[in-house]
Amino acid sequence: MPCDGLRLAAAQMRIDDDFLPEIGHLDLAVLDAAADVVYFLDAGLRLRGYNSAWEAFALANDGAEVLQRYGLGCCVVDASPALLQAIYRAEYLSALGSKEPVERDFQCSSPSEFRLYHQTVYPLPEKHGLMLTNHLLVAGPHPEPPMGFSSAYLNAGGVVVQCSHCRKLRFQSTPERWDWVPSAVEHPLADISHGLCAYCLEHYYPEPHAGDDEPRPTS
After folding, report:
1. Which 3 state secondary structure label does DSSP give 92?
2. Which of 26, 59, 146, 182 is a Cys-bridge partner for 111, taking CB atoms 3.0 to 4.6 Å apart?
3. Would the pTM count as exceeding 0.70?
4. Which pLDDT tens digit goes with each residue over 6-21?
């Protein structure tokens, strides 16, 4: 497809012009119309394009500021909690190097709705980048009762510990207890640290197999 045709097909998508040749084999009109969030990274894991669903999801979840902070050209790994950055970087580079897709489930719940997504990372030809898709698997009521925020979630330094994956808060007097506190998701706290609850650590980030050098986060 000639370059002008690519620009026309990508009219609704936000894509850096100089990255268009790397995705010329794809039907950009179909990808833009998809309900799934679709976005593209270059070999340096910098955001080079995304479809309308990416922007719609961000705006529907009070993410206008995130769109500005992590726009085209940013490293998407930097937008993840520090605890998970090594994991995501290793997975993306694995897909880039092996030319095989990498898949993972992840939670991205709103204060009122539990949401589970399936992410697939597809390598682009010639190791020029990646296409990522986020597909909604489950959407419904939260499986656990909501809790109100209180000082019981503050540690000695006045900091809240939130699970990087499910966004529950650690109950400080009982460290193995993590509660769903919707207000902490709706109005993110200023003094916050990130960890992983026991369930997310074992379910989403299990111990690597022998010979697997992928990093594993700690709680």
Report:
1. helix
2. 182
3. yes
4. 444 455 789 999 999 9
